[in-house]
Amino acid sequence: MSSYIKLIIFIVVLLLISVAIVFIDSSVVNINHSMPAISDGIVQGDKDYNESVELLNERSFDEANQKAISAGDNYNNSLKKLEKIRDKYNKDLHEVHKDYIDTTIDELNLKLKAVDELKEAIYYLRMYYNYTGSTHGTEANDIMQDAVNYQNERNEIVLENPKLFT
């Protein structure tokens, strides 16, 4: 094989490696670009959920329901974005990022279940079915506590891997 052919093969291989690096790097950039919106959605969902509980305790059922719906919308939007990232970039992700995304998805699924239970509590308490409403409220609280455990696990992943989350 002539040196000219070897040079061409070397250049082609180098070019392929460069393209692969750029592709992987661009997927990380896309993920990093999406994360603030996902995080903001979770934070806003938590805020709306807590306000819904406060409004429910004040027996402001319509406002409590609106805040619960808003919390669910925020959680659901963040969940869809995370699932899209997981499905689109799974092969390019570091194992720690995969764990972070999976933990956050588990957290959001639980928070959505808690919102559903909260909406049930609001409905039944509005109708003066206090026992049933309180049961759903307790269930919402228990589910949210489980979700907070995932949230703490997610925060721990970030603390243990600061270089991957800057």
Largest sheet: none
Q: Stretches where pLDDT falls below 50 for ≥5 residues?
A: none
Quaternary state of this entry equals single chain
The first-to-last residue Cα distance is 48 Å
H and E order: HHHH
How big is the Rg?
23 Å
Which band does the percent of strand residues land in?
A: under 5%
Summing up helix and strand content along with how strands pair, one would put the structural category as mainly alpha
Question: What number is the mean pLDDT?
Answer: 87
Tally the helices. 4
Q: Percent helix among the residues?
A: over 70%
Say how many strands there are: 0
Q: What spatial form do the alpha-carbon principal axes imply?
A: elongated
Topology of helices and strands:
Elements: H1 3-57, H2 61-89, H3 95-126, H4 130-160
Helix pairs in contact: 1-2, 1-3, 2-3, 3-4
